[in-house]
């Protein structure tokens, strides 16, 4: 008897999550996982924030139902999403916000919307970008292509090349994917002045900005990290934004995100909202309650908001200090490689400049797991393992 599933091939492992599986199976007692994007404290744990624990206690005392949410999710949560992203820049009636299962869910809803409502339009993606971006757009059958982002030295933004590609390759009506802050995987963000240039090109070419906003508060602070998004919104009256609260609230497993659509008119936002809800209804139907309720509870309570902002500052500052410590410690190894180019980078990730061969050697010899592109999760480092990490990096550089 033939078995139908016998013809199904094994899919290749995910480029990032597959490394975690390999890491978990590694018996090296000194192993380090610097691949997957999660924050860790000095003990190597991904902590639950005190503001989150307090909000959960409040929810436990007051929650009266586990009934379904609406398709769009919790309204107070969506209101807070809009305020964090746009401040008072865009009137509320022009913004449709839907709660989603994480930033990935937001991107997929956005991709389905673009595919069905703007047929023929292409999405332009920075090179490099988060590995899952292209996979999400491909899964939604949404045409996509790349624009240049990283300079040949792999340590800076090539603004001229980016602008040239958007001017010469992208057509009016196309979508351009932008990282709102803390570019993944490089950590290299445009300056405030460069954002103005990018925003001008988007307006000039009549492109639709799709802004992946997964790390607000992890770069320079909540308001400072919104400068790029708001600079773009100064120049255009339509955009989509995909928000994630995995990192800045530490709610990785709760899958808390949102998709926001800004329209030129309130009536257009309402129509787009109805179509976004159709995308959701045929995908996951409605979002989970708990994570969104945590965020809404914190942001509705001034005391909890203050605690959360302090915790966010602590995480951001620690990442900055770890990046600085790595650069300084590498100077002591005698490898002769100056990593000072990492210092201006923002957020959890940094492009190390390590080659795929060197990355493989780190894994095989030292149990240090880094994405093949050389992307390092700085937040996975610790003060206690910094010297051994730098010694291992120096070893593969010398080899």
Automatic annotation (TrEMBL):
GO biological process: amino acid metabolic process
Residue ranges of every copy of the Aminotransferase class I/classII large domain listed in the record: 30-393
Enzyme nomenclature, EC number: 2.6.1.1
Cofactor(s) required for function per UniProt: pyridoxal 5'-phosphate
Domain of life per record: Bacteria
Enzyme class, broadest EC rank: transferase
InterPro entries (UniProt xref): Aminotransferase_I/II_large, Asp_trans, PyrdxlP-dep_Trfase, PyrdxlP-dep_Trfase_major, PyrdxlP-dep_Trfase_small
Keywords for this protein: Aminotransferase, Pyridoxal phosphate, Transferase
Molecular function terms from GO: identical protein binding; L-aspartate:2-oxoglutarate aminotransferase activity; pyridoxal phosphate binding
Entry-linked NCBIfam families: PRK09257.1
Family to which the UniProt record says this protein belongs: Belongs to the class-I pyridoxal-phosphate-dependent aminotransferase family.
Subunit-structure text: Homodimer.
Protein name in the entry: Aspartate aminotransferase
Gene: aspC_2
